Amino acid sequence: MDPGSEVRVRQRLLHLGLNSLVFGICYLLANRLAQQQDIHRHVALALDAQIPFWPWMLLPYLSSGLWLGAAFFALRSRDGLRVFSQRLLLATVLAALVFVLYPLRFSLPRPAVDTPWLAALYDMLAWVDRPYNQLPSLHVAYCLLLWVSLRDLLAPLWARSLLAGGLLLTAVSTLFTYQHHLLDLLGGVALGSLCVYAVRPGRSAPQVALYYLVASGVAAVVGLATWPALLTLYAVLSLGLVSLAYARGDRQFLHKRDGRHPWWIAILYAPYLLGYRLSWRAVAWHERHRPTIQQMAPQLWIGRRLSEAEARLLPTGCSVFDLCCELPETPALRPSQHQRYRHFPLLDIVAPPAEVVQAIVAALRRETAAGHTVYLHCAMGYRRCVQIAKAFTESTP
Fold first, then answer.
1. Reported pTM
2. pLDDT of 49-93, one tens digit each?
3. Buried b (16+ CB within 10 A) or exposed e, 112-144
4. For the structural domain made of 293-395, what CATH number should be given?
C-alpha cells in the first residue's frame, strides 16, 4: 500500500464509523458506571475556583465533533488517515480505561444560563454527557491530534494560525463551560502526546496489532462496566495475546497442526477464533451464488476455506495448501482423510515475509511439476491466497 495514495470515501467512512462506535461504547459506559457509583472524587485545584463561567464558550466546545468529522474527509493520504484514526482510537480507549479505573466528577456547580437557546444547549449536553469522564480530557487530546494531523495540509501561515486558534479555543472551552479542571487539560495533552508517539506515520502495512490492542481495551471497558471480573480478564488477555502475536509477526501462535488447533488454543483464543468462524460463515452465505474457487494457472486453483460438501468436489488427488491459521481445516481435507495436505500459516491482513512467500512458491512449483493440481486457500479467499498465487504466476516462466 502506497502511503501517499488517495483515499476512497468508503475508507474514510469506515474509519469514521469505527471511531464513532468505539467512542460511543467506551465513553458512555464509563460515564454510566461513574454515575451508578455516585462518584464525588475530583482533582480540582484552588485555581480552578477562580475560573469564570462563560456560557457562550459552549459553541466552541460543541465544535469538536465538527472538527473530528471534517478531519476524516480532509486528510489526503491513506497513511495520514490511518495514523489519525488509530491515534484517536488509542486515545479513546486509554482515556476510557482511566475513567473506569479512577472515575472523577467535576466539582463546581454550573451557574444558571440566562440565554434561552444557550440554556437549551446546556440542558441537552447535561442529558448526553454527565459531569464525569474528567481526567484526561478527551477534548484536549483530540485537539492535539487534530493539530498534528491537519497542520501540514495548510501551507499559508494565516490558515495554520486559524486552525491553531480554533483548536485552542475548543480545548480551553472545556474550562469555561465547567466541563473540566486544569489537571484534566494537562492529562489530555499528555494523552495526545503519548498517542502521537505510539502511532507513527510512514508504514507500508496496516498496524493490525494496534487494532487488537484497542479491541482488548474496549473489552476491558465493557467488562469493567458490565461483566464479571474473570470474564473481563479472559477477554482482555485473549485479545491482548492476539495483538502481541501480530506485533511479533508470529505466524505459529495458534499452533495449528494437521489442520486442527489444540484444545487449549481453542479455549484461550475463543473470542478471536469465533470471530473468524462467524466471518467465514457470513462470507460463504454472501457468496453462495458465486463460484467458490477460481483458476489462477493451469494447475492452480484458489479460494476460501471450503465446507465439507464443497471439499468433496475437488479433483481426486488434488493437493491442498492451507494458508489459514485462524480456522481448522475442513475434516475431509485434513491429513487423516486427505493425503496431500500441507499447512503454511500466514497472518491475515499483513503482507507475509518475502522468504516465506518464496518458500510457498517453491513448494507450489514442486507440486505442479509433479503433475498435481493444487487448491490454495486462506480463510475468506480474499487476500493471502491471492498474494501467493500472484507471486507464483509472476515467477513462472
1. 0.89
2. 999 999 999 999 999 999 999 999 999 999 999 999 999 999 999
3. ebeeeeeeebbeebeeeebbbbbbbbbbbbbbb
4. 3.90.190.10
